[in-house]
Records
---
Amino acid sequence: MTASKTADNSLLQVDNLKVHFGQGRRLFSRSRWSVRAVDGVSFQIREGETLGLVGESGCGKSTVGRAVAQLLTPTSGMISFDGEDVTGMDSARERRFRRDLQIVFQDPYSSLDPRMRIGAAIREPLIIHGIARGREADARVTELLDAVGLPVSAVERYPHEFSGGQRQRIAIARALALEPRLIVCDEPISALDVSVQAQIVNLLGELQKRRRLTFLFIAHDLAVVRHISHRIAVMYLGRIVETGDSETLCREPLHPYTKALFGAVPRTDPRAARSGDWSVIEGEIPSPLNPPNGCHFHTRCPFAREVCRHSDPPLEALSKDRGVACHFWREIRANTGADPIKTKKAAT
C-alpha cells in the first residue's frame, strides 16, 4: 500500500499511532486490561530536520521510536516513510526500509555484542545487505570510525575496552554504515556522563549537516532537546499535547504540562532560584493501565474544569508547525503571563 505524500514532502508521517500491550483479564474480574503505551500519536518529520520527542519517563516516547523503526507492531494507525506505508511490508520492502532507517539505543553497554570486535560489528550490516565485502568493507569501517572521532585501531578491540561515550560513538558508526536517511535516537545520551553528553550531541549535529540526516531524537532533557531539535513534540501519557518549532515552544509554551516541564529545568542564576519562579507538577503520573478519561493531564492540571474530565481536547493546529491539545490554552496565555501552578498556590 502506498500513502500519498504530504504537501511539505515529509520523510516520515505518523497518523493516529496506537500501541497497546497486554489485552489480559483482571484478577477476579471479567474486565480486560491493556497498557495504552501510545494512544493516538500523529506527527511528521521533514527530510534533513530533527524532531525532538520529550516527556516524563513512561509517557511512551521510546515505544513511539520502536514502532517507527518497526521493532514493535502498532495496534493501529499508519506510519509512512517517503510516502509509502511501512506497516505490513513484504520482506523485500522491509529489507530496503532497514537500510533507510536505523536506531541508536539508550544503553551503549548492552547494544553492542560483547563478544564481537568493533570492526566486525560495524562491518556486519555492510555484508548482510550486500553493500561491501573484503577490502572495500574494511575501508568503509575505517571511514565510519573516523567520522565519529575514533581511531582505526578500534577495529581489533572489544566493547568492554571503551568508555560509555566511545561505545555510543561506535553505535552511531554502525547506524551510519547503511547510509540511512532517518535515524531514531532513543535517549542516546541519558546513560552517559554529563561531560560526555555534549560531545555526542555535537557529533550528531555535525553528522546531520555533513550527511543531511534526519533524526527523531527522543529524550527527557529539555535543554538538550532545545539545542539539537528544529521542532519539538511534547508527550504525556501516550499522547502528544503540544508541538512547535524549538525556539517558539521553549519561549512560549502553551500547554500547562509543557509550561511545568520547562519551569522544572534547574536555573543557573541563583537569583532566579530564590525568586521561586519554578513550576512544579503536583501529583503522580497516572497509570497507562487505567488512564483518566478526557484530558489525561486533568488530574494534575491547575486549570482543569469539568469539561477536561470527560472531553479529550484534540491537537489544535495553530499554524503549520504549532499545535496544542488544551481546552483553555488561550485563557492560560492571556493570564498576564502568570505561571498556572503558582497561580493555583496563591489562590489556595
Note: The first strand starts at residue 10 and ends at 25.
---
Amino acid sequence: MMIGLEDAVADRWMSEAADSMGHLLLGWSPDQEGGLVVQGVGLMIEGKGMNLGVGEICTLLSDPPIDAEVVGFREGRTLLMPLGDLEGVRPGTRLIRKSRITSVFLSPEWLGRVLDPLGRPLDGSPLPEGTVEMPLRGRPINPLVRQRIDRPLDLSVRSINALATIGVGQKIGIFAGPGVGKSTLIGMMARKASVDVNVIALIGERGREVRDFLERDLGPEGLARTVLVVATGDQPPLLKTRATLLAAAIAEMFRDMGKQVLFVMDSLTRYAGALREIGLATGEPPSARGFTPSVFAQLPRLIERAGSVEGVGSITGLYTVLVEGEDAPSDPLSEALTAILDGHIHLSRLLAQEGIFPAFDPVESLSRVMADIVPEDRLSLAREWRRLYGVFRRSEDLIRIGAYVPGTDPLLDKAVRVHGAMTDFLRQSREDHVSIDQAFQDLSGSLEEPAGEET
C-alpha cells in the first residue's frame, strides 16, 4: 500500500515536473546553445558548455526560472549576472540561450507610462506592444553628422535660463549632495521645459521616493509627456544598468522620430556604482576610489548617446551627480564627469539652508555652449551679474561682522547695494515658469540700484 502510494506520488511529481519543464522549454530548439551552472559566488554565476557572447541573455531553468546576462569569461567558463534573485539556483542548473542580440522593441505609445528595467509596466495597466526595434546599447554616431548646438532650450528655471543657458542637444550635469533639491528641480524642468518628450531614468532610488517624484515633483502634467524607467536601490546592479540603457534607447527612438527629447537621469552616480559592482564581480582591479577602469570607459558611451544629429530630432541630457562630501574636486567620479559633460550646474547646500530654491550656485555653475547660443549683450549682462555676486560672496564674512568700510571698493559697494535683489532673482517657486526672455529681463532688473543709495 505504501509502495503504491509512493509510486503514485512519484508519477504525479514526474508528470508535474515534465509539464513545468515543457512550459519552460516552450519555443526552445536543439540549435540553442546551452550549458550548466558550475559555480556561483556573490552576484556572479559561472557556467560551462555554452557558446554565448558578451551581452547575450540566457535563462536559468531554476525554480523559478530567471534570466542572466553574459558579462565576461574566465578560464573557459562563462560569467553571468542575474536579472533577478538567485533563489533556487544550484550547481547543475540548466542554461539555455534566450536572445542573441541586445535589442529591444519599443513603442511611442508608452508616453505616460512607468516601466521596470526589462520594459514591463509598473503602473498596473497593460502596455502597448513594442513595434520599433532599437539597439539597447545604441549605435556609434559619426561626429560629422552631429549638429552644432546653436539654439537655447527653455528649461523654465530663471537662474539656469539666464546664468547657465542650456542649448538644444547639450549634455549637462547637476552636481549636488543629498537632500539639496535635485529631484524637485528635475521634476520642475520636466513639467515646463520646451520639449516634446521627457524620458526619465530613476536609477537606484528609494522605493518611497519613486512615488513622491511621480506625484509631487512630476505631477500629471509632466507624466503625460514622459516615459519613466525605474530601477530601485534594492535591485541587482545589472538591472540598474539595463534600466539606464533602456531609457537611453527610448530617448533615441523619439529623437529618430524628429522629437525634441529631454533625457533626465537620476542619478549617474548610482549607474556608475552599478558598473563598479559588475566590474569587481568579474575580477577587474579597482583603481580610483574603488571604481574599476571599465566604469570610466562606459560613462562616455552613455553620455555620447545624447545630442543632435542630422534631422530635426535631438536629445538634451541632464544627469544628476551625487557629490561626495560636497566637494567635487576630491571625488574622482565627479571630476571625470565634469570633463566629459558640456557643462555643470552646482546646487549649493548653503543656499538651500538659506531657503533659496532652486539652490543654484551661480559661481560654480557653467554652460560651455552659452557663448554660442546667447547674444553678446545678454552674455555681458550675465558676466556682470556673476562678477558682482562673486565679489559679495568673497567678502561676505567681512561685511557681516562690520569690518568692511563702504567706499573702499566701488565694485563691492554696488554688490552690497544690489545683493538683496540678486538673491531674490535666484528664488523661484516650483510652480512658476520663467521663459528665457523673462529671465534676462529679471536679471537686468536685479542689477538696478535702489534710488538714493548710490555713493
Note: The longest helix spans residues 2-24.
---
Amino acid sequence: MSPRQIGVTEVALRDAHQSLMATRMAMEDMVGACEDIDNAGYWSVECWGGATFDACIRFLNEDPWKRLRTFRELMPNSRLQMLLRGQNLLGYRHYEDMVVDKFVEKSKENGMDVFRVFDALNDPRNLERAMSAVKQVGGHAQGTICYTTSPLHTVEGYIEQAGRLLNMGADSIALKDMAALLKPQPAYDIIRGIKDTYGEETQINVHCHSTTGVTMVTLLKAIEAGADVVDTAISSMSLGPGHNPTESFAEMLEGTGFETGLDMHRLINIRDHFKQVRPKYAEFESKTLVDTNIFLSQIPGGMLSNMEGQLRAQGAADRMDEVMLEVPVVRKDAGYPPLVTPSSQIVGTQAVFNVLMGRYKVLTAEFADLMLGYYGECIGERNPDLIRQAEAQARKEPITVRPADLLEPEWDQLRAEAESLPGFDGTDEDVLTNALFPGVAPGFFTTRDEGPKNVGKTQEQLAREKAVASGQANAVREPITYKITVGGRSQTVKVEPGE
C-alpha cells in the first residue's frame, strides 16, 4: 500500500519572519528562494496577510500589493496563501461589508489563491462575509478555528465550530494554534471528530507554532487522525516562537505510512538561502527558544514582547511576572477569548493597566469595546460589573448584533479620503491601503517613489557595530590619509580613527 500524501504549507515568506523577527524581512531577501519554493512540491506557500501589509508600509517603504504581484510572478506553479482577519481584514477594526468584498476581490486579482479566514473571538458572524467574498471570486476559502484552552473550550465545541464553517462554504478547515497550546491528544480528538462527523473528504490543515516544544508530536498525531496539510517553516527560519522545521517534519514521516513528496534537494537550497539571510535581522530576533509558561498564561510570543515594551516605557520592567498572573484574570472577565491579534493586544494591555494603576481603575477604549460586544461574542459570559463600567466610560450601549451590521457604507468616503492624499495613485488598492492603515499610508504614499528599504544589516555592518560596541572600532576602520601644508611645506599624515 502506497504512503498517504501529506500536503505542506511553507510559511517562511510570511509567518516565520513575522514570528521570529517582527515581520521585517525585505522582499529582496526572499526573491532568491522563490524558484526553489515554487518547485519543491508544497501544497501552498503562505506569503501575505497577517502583519506583512502593515510592516511593508510602516517599516520597509514597500507597496504590499506589488509584493503580492511579485510573488505571483516568481511562483507561477504555487497556490499562494494569506491570513485574513475576517471582518477586520488586515487592520484593527471592523470594516463595512463592501470594503471586505473589495479587499478580497483585489487580493484575488493581484494573485492570491488561498484565503485563511479567522476571527480573534471565533465568532462565526465575523467570518461570514469574508468567506462569502472569497467564494464569489473563485478563491479557496479556508475557515479557521483559533485553538485555545479554558474551562469552556471542549473537543465537541471545536467540532461544532468546524460544522458552522463548512456550512458557510469552507473549502477546507484550518486548526490554528498560534500559541503552541495544541497538545497531541486533543489534536487527534478534534481532527478525528471532524472527519467522523462531516466526512473523510473534509480537508483539514493544521497550523502550529513551536514555542512550547510539544507541537512536532502534535503534527504527527494530527496526521494519524486524518489531517491533510500541515504548516512548517524551512529549518533555517524555524523554532522558537516560530514553527516546526520543514525538512525535519518530512524526515520524521519516514516509515510511518505517510510522506510529503517534497523535493529534498530544493529544500536544502531554500534552507541555505535563508541561512545566509537570517543573521541580517538579528536585532529584531526574539530571544525565546522554548517557553512552557505559555501553558499557564496562554501568552503568544508577539503579545509577550508587546507587554514587555509597554512596561519598559513606564519604567516598570520588573513587574512582568505580575502582568503574567493578571492576563488569565482579564481573559476570564472578558469571556475567555483566544489570544490572537487583536484580542491578545487588548487583553494584554488591560492587564498592564491593571498592574500599574490598580485592577480596572482604568479601562482601555479597546477593552471597553470588547466588554460591550463591539468585537463580537466570546464563548464565555463577560463580567457584568465590567460591562456596566465599560458602558459608563464609553457612553454607549452593549450590543448583541454582528458588529459590522452597525456600520454605514463607507467605500465612497474612503475613496474621497485617499484621493486627497499626495502620492495617491488612483487605484482601489491604494484606497484599501489607506483604509487599513490611515495613520501610516499617507506618509508611505509620499515616499513610495524612493523604493523599498532593507532594514537588515550586512555582515560588514554587523561586524562594525560589534567592534564599536566592544571598543575595538579601529579593527574595522581604516586610517584616513590627509595631505597637510604647514609654512609652505607639504607632507602626508595618517590619522587613526579615534585620534
Note: Residues 43 and 391 are 47 Å apart (CA to CA).
